[in-house]
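Researcher: I'd like a structural prediction for the single chain below. Treat it as a standalone chain; there are no partners to consider.
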Amino acid sequence: MNRLLFPLFALLLLAACQAGVRDGENDHLILRGQLENAERLGMQFQELTTSELVHVDSITADARGTFSYRKKLDEAGFYILRVDQSNFITLVAEPGDEIHVSGDAQNLSADHRIEGSEDSALLSMLNRSILDGYTEVDSLALVFRESQYTANARQVRWEVNQAYADIFEEKQAFVKRFIRDNPHSLASIIALYQYFGNRLLLNENEHFEYFEKLSKSLSEAYPTNRHVMDLKRRVSQYKRNMSRRELAEQSLATGRPAPDIVLPDPEGNMVSLSSLRGKYVLIDFWAAWCSPCREINLQLKGIYDTYRHQGFEIYGISLDRTRTQWLQGIIEDGITWVQVSDLRFWNSPVISLYNIEAIPYNVLIDPEGRILKKKLSPEQLEEVLAGIFGSPIP
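Model: Treating it as a single chain, here is the predicted structure.
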């Protein structure tokens, strides 16, 4: 009887130990790889947190390009396996994942395969699409460079710009589909904040529905995940800001008094908007670093010269960061109208006071300081002033 009990006890103990090993692995990521051109290659393993990129560890492949790495994880997150600054892949890793990576280390970003993580495979598909777009853009850049000194350079430039816009829209449509098709995947957070060139493919102002819907679906799947909680916080903050902007916009409605502004001019003298009462005033928000603003300045010069003696003034507010930059813009554009700035960039109080989201931006007020029009193009401004003062004398 004893001889029967001992083997049974031993089997139960062994099973318990094996279960313990498996349970212990459930809170770890196991990352394995087999890469070409990776003999003794050192790589970085980094974590993409909600606020920064953090170095986690170094991984070195053996003589055959094989590597294995194990890390304890508290929750699902984003990780980067980096060969160099521009050659890396992004992974979505959860506790218990066993991910295998293969490919060519010399071009890992474009040439890799990921197994063992559905979310990481989705991210790989997303990144390949973006890389394909960059390849198309590189071809456009070559066409543009080759045509720079030809007779049809302007036409080619227009066609290249249009082609780039088409590529951008195509990638924008891709990330929209990606998010719609994968509402419970953490990979969709990366898609949500995906850049193409120096522009976000989606932004909260134009595509807020994607942010809100993804936040809701991911909160159901990962209610305590910090990336999901950060997205939820951003969505809530945007809603609060929208409510604030709506209230501010009501205070800036046509016929309402324009909020007064008192800022220093280039000589340091404080100049108030209200000091220009009795004139029609264009409150013009601009900056020397803003190319569209500079183009508009050139058009405003003619309008100002035409109507300045008839009761029209411009109160220019610069969002520059430095006095040197600001003054250089004034000199280069030949600005002679009132100029003020606190040189606080987007941190200036006038941003929230006038509910500004982008520049160039302007507000036209009447001699009593009441708001007449907003966001006028130079052509529209000239038309309004002609209606007020009459057409200029040729």
